[in-house]
Sequence to fold (386 residues):
Amino acid sequence: MKQFILILLLLTALESQGQYVWKQNADIPTKGCFQSAFVIGDVAYAGLGCISFNGYKTTDKFYKYDPVGDTWTPVASFPGGGRYGAAAFALKGKGYICFGRDDAQNWNNEIWEYDPAADTWTRKKDFPGGARYESTGFAINDTGYIAGGSFNAGTNYLKDAWRYFPVSDVWSQLPDLPVEHKSAAAGLSLNGKGYVLGGLNDTYTASNDNLVYDPELNHWTQLPSFPGAPLRDPAAFTLEGKIFLGAGMNPDPSGSEVFSSFRAFDPALSTWSSCPGLPSPASPRYGATGFTVADAGYVSDAAEICASDATVRTLTLKATNATVYLPPSVAPVYNYQWLDTTGTPIPGANNSTYTVASAFANNISSNFSVIMTSTTPSPLGCGATT
Fold:
């Protein structure tokens, strides 16, 4: 899957307005979704994430990105093992990874510090607020912040907020978020304030509310709602004094919707405006990683949804933790392998459709899945395997 960069181009030397343009950049070497990223100076660091939802396989790989050369270079692998949904931020020239969920679906309270000069990871004191994943992280000056998250396989949602002092390796609790729950939200800082954007209120309820934290007042404030559909796991970054938020999923048990569109928020005016969404061949996605480096905004790997239009009584494709439907128009370009309720390949079930035994007929969307491997370039712009 490709990375996309949003850059600001001036129309002419005489015009004061610019236009935002997406550009396709180099792939991150290890594909995945729900990755973690932080920026130190003019270099971005990204890695971890879920590389397969068939058994929730994760990776411990980490990379640094040079925007000048458009190159990814491996750095020391994460010693805490593979995980996804970990919060991240950078402080005093070092990066921090907080929490996350591993291959065995265990969530944790670990804090790790990365030193780019030595290319080493150091485990810090465990977080005192309890194990979790899908928390939101950001940094303001020399202090790190995390907010919300969930545990118990994503069924218990949190709304607490904490700040971290790296020199003393100490956490202190802040006022709770002024919402009932918050997980899988995007987070960033801009002009001395921290933002928590979108996310989940519970398993099937995404939110379009947005919050800003003022460290001087030690207070959370509700911002204008996101004007599009509510989003879980959106991507966000800053550019030219604005916040860009987009992609993401609006979950629904009857058929989730995934987006490629973006909107821009101007904190000075407290208003949202339209901006270009991800262009083709980038497909709608969620769980993408957003960051800003060298005056450009980036959206890296994600969980792509390769088919979204529903047909009555067709089998559902359980892809990337969402339920989407397999339309006939996609069928000619894939090889198929259907899996049973335990995830075991079904012998001979290699067509674009699979007839389910009558005993399962009323529960097919939750019991069966299919691996689709591309044989030709996909008309929907997806990767080779879904």
Observations:
- Residues 19 and 102 are 41 Å apart (CA to CA).
- The chain has a mean pLDDT of 80.
- The two ends are 11 Å apart (CA to CA).
- DSSP finds one helix and 36 strands in the chain.
